[in-house]
């Protein structure tokens, strides 16, 4: 997804299980024409899906990108997967932006988090 340099540096909160994650791991091509605009649109669009909980992103210096989307239930994930604009972006990604990718979907059965107190 995008570089997210303006995004806060904090992971998505731990939610009460069960919920679902979609882990999208990518290596992008050299030509990224139109990618940033489409990515921003997808990030705005997914927020409108009832049951969308949040998204984490990471990018290695070598070019491996990982995006994890969190969804309250399978219906929310199905709604996102079947969204017409999202489907069109997926096709364009395969045709232009991704050298390779994998998608893993899992049901989260355990979740916890930690935040260091300020001060």
From TrEMBL:
PANTHER family named in the record: ABM DOMAIN-CONTAINING PROTEIN, BLL5343 PROTEIN
Pfam family, one: ABM
Annotated ranges, domain ABM: 19-92
Keywords tagged on the record: Monooxygenase, Oxidoreductase
InterPro entries named in the record: ABM_dom, Dimeric_a/b-barrel, Jasmonate_Hydroxylase-like
GO MF annotation terms: monooxygenase activity
Protein name: Antibiotic biosynthesis monooxygenase family protein
């Amino acid at each position: 997804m995008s570089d997210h340099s303006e995004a806060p540096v904090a992971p998505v909160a731990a939610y009460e299980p069960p919920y679902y994650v979609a882990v999208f791991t990518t290596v992008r091509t050299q030509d990224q024409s139109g990618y940033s605009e489409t990515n921003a649109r997808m990030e705005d669009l997914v927020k409108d899906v009832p049951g969308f909980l949040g998204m984490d992103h990471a990018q290695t210096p070598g070019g491996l990108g990982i995006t994890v989307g969190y969804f309250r239930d399978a219906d929310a994930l199905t709604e996102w997967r079947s969204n017409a604009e999202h489907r069109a972006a997926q096709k364009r990604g395969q045709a232009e932006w991704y050298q390779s990718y994998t998608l893993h979907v899992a049901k989260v059965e355990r979740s916890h988090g930690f935040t260091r107190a300020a001060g």
